[in-house]
Amino acid sequence: MIKLISRAAITTFIYANANIVLRIIIFFAIFFCLNIFYSKWETLLITTSPDSLFYLLVAYTLIIFMLLIWVISSFPFFSSFARSKKTLEIKKSIQERSNEYEKIRDVRLHPELKSTSRKSLED
User: What is the C-alpha to C-alpha distance for residues 23 and 71, in angstroms, rounded to an integer?
Assistant: First the structure.
């Protein structure tokens, strides 16, 4: 029973933070692919022209650094285990009521809507 509850909590946590988890997965996939390519090019450039190895290292480092900043910049948006259930409820309510928001999006279709400042001026 406890395993079921813990798995449900982890699933809810991952689903609530799906964008951030996706960013982390993309970072690791690109990191490992770049690491493989860098090691292949490094061995080739050491034997052919060691002077151009520095440029490859700079390009590799910049790409990895930019990806790392991209992932780290999303960490403040993590929702905790306690807030993940609330986050899912909010996402579902927005998806369910998106048509209602679209209906009032265009103010020209609803000329009877007035801002609060205009209402106070008219009174």
Answer: 6
**Residue appearing with tokens 């306690």:** 82
Spatial contact of 20 and 27, defined as CB atoms under 8 Å apart: no
Tens of pLDDT, residues 62-116? 999 999 999 888 877 666 656 666 766 777 776 776 666 666 666 666 666 566 6
- Of 60, 79, 64, nearest to 21 by C-alpha is 79
What are the pLDDT digits (tens) for 85-95?
A: 676 677 777 67
Q: Measuring CA to CA, how many Å separate 28 from each of 33, 54, 71, 87, 117?
A: 9, 24, 10, 26, 51
Alpha helices in the chain (DSSP H): 2-16, 18-48, 53-72, 81-96, 98-103, 116-122
